Amino acid sequence: MITKETLHALCNLVSAQPFVETLCLSADVVADIDPGSDIAKMTDRDWRVAQYNDPVLRKWIKTVRDKGKPNRQSLPKGKEHLAIFRTFDKLCLQRGVLYRRTRADDHDKLQLVLPKSH
């Protein structure tokens, strides 16, 4: 007979690594995407402009550039700021575009931080 602890250990032995991680703030974002827009064709410049035009991301781009993590009490109100604050140590700028560093399959990956408009 298999004990509960053995079964639990076996079930936790295999853990699938997701191919995509997301920092979803609202399910409404998906509905707002223009079906005619082709995100894959966007250049670094397009992403810089889109992120800069997002008032939440604009603040965090400046904060990452200045390399100074704010304290929690100084955060602007809003769940978006809190969610980004929690992942601040993983944020980086590449060619002026904000990314979150992540690790999958023993490789470092950069995950694009999408503006609310996308």
Please write out the topology.
Blueprint: H1 4-13, H2 28-32, H3 44-52, H4 55-66, H5 79-86, E1 91-94, E2 97-104, E3 107-112
Antiparallel strand pairs: 1-2, 2-3
State the helical fraction: 25-40%
Identify the overall geometry: extended
Number of helices: 5
Indicate the proportion of strand residues: 15-25%
Structural class determined from secondary elements: alpha+beta
What's the N-to-C terminus distance?
52 Å
Largest sheet: 3 strands, antiparallel
Per DSSP E runs of 2 or more residues, the count of β-strands stands at: 3
Give the overall pLDDT as a whole number. 80
How does this model look, in words?
This protein has 118 residues and is an alpha+beta fold. It has a domain at 39-118. Helix content is 37%, strand content 15%. The protein is built from 5 helices and 3 strands, in the order αααααβββ. The protein has a 3-stranded antiparallel beta sheet with strand order 1-2-3. β1 and β2 form a beta hairpin. The longest helix is centred in the middle third of the chain and has 12 residues, at 55-66. The protein is extended. The mean pLDDT is 80.
